[in-house]
Amino acid sequence: xxxxxxxLEDYTIGATDGDVxxxxxxxxxxxxxxxxxxxxxxxxxxxxRKVLISPISILSHDWVFHRLNVAIxxxxxxxxxxxxxxxxxxxxHEIQYLGYYGYPYYWGLAGMWSTGMYPGGFGLxxxxxxxxxxREERAKAERARHxxxxxxxxxxxxxxxxxxxxxxxxxGHVESLLIDEDTWAIQYLVVNTSNWWLGHxxxxxxxxxxxxxxxxxxxxxxxxxxxxKTSPLYASSEQLNRERESSLYNHYGRAGYWLIExxxxxxx
Length: 268
What we know:
Blueprint lengths: L1 E3 H4 L3 E4 L2 E12 L4 E8 L8 E4 L4 E5 L4 E4 L3 H5 L12 H11 L30 H15 L6 E3 H4 L3 E4 L2 E12 L5 E7 L8 E4 L4 E5 L4 E4 L3 H5 L12 H11 L4 H11 L1
Parallel strand pairs: 2-7, 9-14
Antiparallel strand pairs: 1-10, 2-3, 3-4, 3-8, 4-5, 6-7, 9-10, 10-11, 11-12, 13-14
């Protein structure tokens, strides 16, 4: 199922021995359009320190009570590497963070995650994936290899309000993001076109994006204004089933992402 970014805000992150805090934002990878980290405000117990929590750590979801239960302890979170979420996250910080928890690196791979489509498929006991010497040696090699690399991490909140530019003009602005609750992929941008067509909301898939210009705050798409105007209307994530998604992709003459994912899995 797909969930809007706003619906996932303020979800409680529950560690194995108590609550860690609440989700306030997300870092997504602007190459693969996948959520890589939750930005979590820890509240009073850590003086509102903000920490990163990876979807890799999720054990279970409780959608009714707005909780994500993770396979880490509060002590691990307390001792995790400090991160300034108001500044860009460097690859060095990521290597330090992933090494601390014993998670594999996700970059440089064809799929969304290291072992396929889903973040929970690693099967790595927290902190026990490798012995300390092996982790440090690997981290050192990775730091040297990727020291000047752009990690492509962006804030989900930051892209809200960006203008959508079609091939032949502007058509609206980004109002929300729809996120797959299993893969944590950003499946759609919800575009509000009310400045052009009253009360009109449509969906744009990341694979139709030509470029995101962060300085100009614009998203350029490989679509024409008229095709966007006549595309199926978006009402809510609860009503967005596979039939409606198929209608959307058929409208644009594109293959559905679920078909491509199936092909990738069958090739393994």
